[in-house]
Amino acid sequence: MTIIFIRTLIVFLALLISMRLMGKRQLGELELSELVVAILISDLAANPLQDIGIPLLNGLIPIIVLLCCELIISAIITKSVAGRVLLCGRPSMLVENGVINQREMHKNRFSLDELTEELRNLSITDISTVQYAVLETDGSLNVVLIPSERPVTAGQMNIQVEDTGYWTIVINDGTLIEKNLKRVGRDERWLQKELSARRVAGVKEVYLLMVDGAGNIFYCAKEARE
Amino acid sequence: MKREFVAVIILIMLFAGTLCGTAYLTEKTDSLVELVNYSERAASEGDLQKALSIAGDAAKQWSDMNRYTHIFVRHSEVDATADAFFDLLSDLHNNDDASGAYGKLRIHLNSISGMERMTFRNIF
Question: pTM value?
Answer without folding.
Answer: 0.71
